[in-house]
Design a protein that fits this description.
This is glutathione transferase. It comes from Megalops atlanticus. It holds the Pfam family GST_N. Keywords: Transferase. Its EC number is 2.5.1.18. The structure is a single chain. The chain is α+β, with helices and mostly antiparallel strands and about 200 residues long. The chain contains eight helices and four strands. A four-stranded mixed beta sheet has the order 2-1-3-4. Helix 1 (about 15-25) links the parallel strand 1 (about 5-10) and strand 2. The chain binds glutathione. Glutathione (GSH) binds next to loops. Glutathione binds near residues 13, 14 and 63.
């Protein structure tokens, strides 16, 4: 079988969760990073003309979360049983909702700052409270084992921290979870060796 090819731009963005899952599971993959200057000419060859896309056995799989869920199932990270799978999905969706609220494309820098401030002042506390409640006294967000929801928390935390450093400082259990995820075998190596990008 051909190794997976994950095509995206040179950033963490919407591909990083899948890169985490593949690295954690020790599944070899080609981390294909497209240069923006080359993108217009190759864009029409991808589903919906967007990235990330995973090449699987000659076929193309699009949508970042569909790709990550597909890989999470293979890696045993989807959650154990129907309910825990759905709970992991719900956490991933909740984190993703927050990333979609970030005004990435706002060109007015003052307005962008105001929108980001509003997001972190109003929505982040709700999100963090929700995650802590989901986690309870356990070590992981869902059940008694690591799932892709824990990995996505680490991915999102890294990006959110660029926008609002220290935003989760008062949430000690979620901070401890970051350490736990970052020390997972396979993932620690990825975190040390991955290309350094702002987002
Ligand atoms: N819902 C899609 C969104 C994909 C998306 O917006 N991709 C952006 C990069 S993050 C893209 O391909 N931009 C280039 C373009 O649209 O030409 C996903 O999660 O994969």
């Amino acid at each position: 079988m051909q190794p997976y090819k994950l095509t995206y731009f040179n950033m963490r963005g919407r591909a990083e969760l899948s890169r985490y899952i593949l690295s954690y599971a020790g599944i070899p993959f080609k981390d294909q990073r497209v240069e923006w200057k080359d993108w217009p000419s190759i864009k029409p060859s991808f589903p919906l003309e967007q990235l990330p896309v995973l090449e699987v056995e000659g076929g193309l799989l699009n949508q970042s979360l569909a790709i990550a869920r597909f890989l999470a199932k293979e890696a045993g990270l989807a959650g154990h049983g129907r309910l825990q799978e759905a709970q992991a999905d719900a956490i991933v969706d909740s984190l993703n909702d927050f990333t979609l609220m970030i005004p990435w494309r706002e060109e007015d820098q003052q307005l962008k700052k105001e929108k980001i401030d509003g997001l972190f002042d109003v929505h982040a506390p709700k999100l963090l409270g929700y995650l802590e409640k989901q986690m309870g006294d356990r070590e992981w967000l869902v059940g008694d084992a690591v799932t892709w929801a824990d990995l996505y928390w680490h991915v999102c935390f890294t990006t959110f921290s660029v926008l609002r450093p220290g935003f989760a400082d008062r949430h000690s259990r979620l901070c401890a979870l970051l350490q736990r995820v970052g020390s997972l075998p396979g993932l620690d190596h990825w975190l040390q060796t991955r290309p350094k990008t702002e987002f």
